């Protein structure tokens, strides 16, 4: 009887799922994949959305295979807190622990956990595994993970964790395949630009720094998240505007970023269409690209140079105009795009004479999940 793995990548604006073959002596091969995108994120509709997603998912599975042929489900877990650094089966104790981590990733963990509970309720015999976005950054140098707050408050739990790790791990493997070992071991900036957006500075294959921090609200401006803001602004809003903590949380997580600035949409496709006629959309796009450009400079400085930039994620893979705006004026440190290649979303979009290679690599978090779950299953079956 054939055996399959189901992978589920719940992002902040989409759920991407895929079924892979599971054979002990072969790498997981993709059989079917699907996605539900433009899920409007909001704290109020998270539960309803997840119920809907679960039902659509079951329908989608039964259209392709018998549910009994699925031997394990792997879920992307955005946050593993201070304890979870590698893929693991999700038993009640792990799920309780991850539930306690919700405040560290309030955009993602509630819907990720709810989907797991629905699976456990409906299909209790299929083991569920968690694969962590934070794992790729687990070895961040101390200087990058340390927060500038009193040590007594910081403890072991409060530090920069970093996210989009399944994506970054995949991009580094692909970079090695398409560009070779020397390029993969060089000074690389990975830009995962989706509804959530982050960058990572990677040298010798190791994460040296990344823009998201304790939570995925930090760093670049995003679909609905602020990214980095002046901590004084938050205090000002608490004191002078008398915002409650809940109002502040909603503002930072759900009402800011591209949506807050444009006042119309968190979706880059909409903003690119509207920016000729709506100055708010134009400003949102400009802000996004300006911040990304500044961070490229910062990470090149942090690494003492730059060999490769990789664009990925929904925006990074599909929006040439955003890549053009990010890379403009960077010729002084070797970044220069080839316009035609950029417009074609080609694999290499830098000009032939540019010092820095700029690449577009479609990410695949699902295959990383499938590989990690296969390892867990294989280890179990050996015992
Ligand atoms: N063709 C496109 N042009 C511009 N932006 C796009 C395009 N396709 C997708 N996007 C953008 O990608 C973002 C979603 O990215 P994705 O990585 O799928 O999100 P998630 O964070 O949910 O994983 C949205 O802002 C969407 O507008
Ligand atoms: C961590 C994060 O923001 O993930 P996503 O881009 O999938 O929302
Ligand atoms: Mg994503």
Automatic annotation (TrEMBL):
The active site is at 133 (proton donor/acceptor). Pathway: Metabolic intermediate biosynthesis; acetyl-CoA biosynthesis; acetyl-CoA from acetate: step 1/2. Its EC number is 2.7.2.1. Keywords: ATP-binding, Cytoplasm, Kinase, Magnesium, Metal-binding, Nucleotide-binding, Transferase. Substrate binds at residue 76. ATP binds at residues 16, 192-196, 267-269, 314-318. Mg(2+) binds at residues 9, 365. It is an enzyme of class 2 (transferase). It catalyses: acetate + ATP = acetyl phosphate + ADP. One of its GO terms (cellular component) is cytosol. It comes from the Bacteria. It is found in: Cytoplasm. Its main location: cytoplasm. InterPro entries: Ac/propionate_kinase, Aliphatic_acid_kin_short-chain, Aliphatic_acid_kinase_CS, ATPase_NBD. Mg(2+). Can also accept Mn(2+). GO terms for biological process: acetate metabolic process; acetyl-CoA biosynthetic process. SUPFAM superfamilies: Actin-like ATPase domain (SSF53067). PANTHER family: ACETATE KINASE. NCBIfam families: ackA. Belongs to the acetokinase family. This is Acetate kinase.
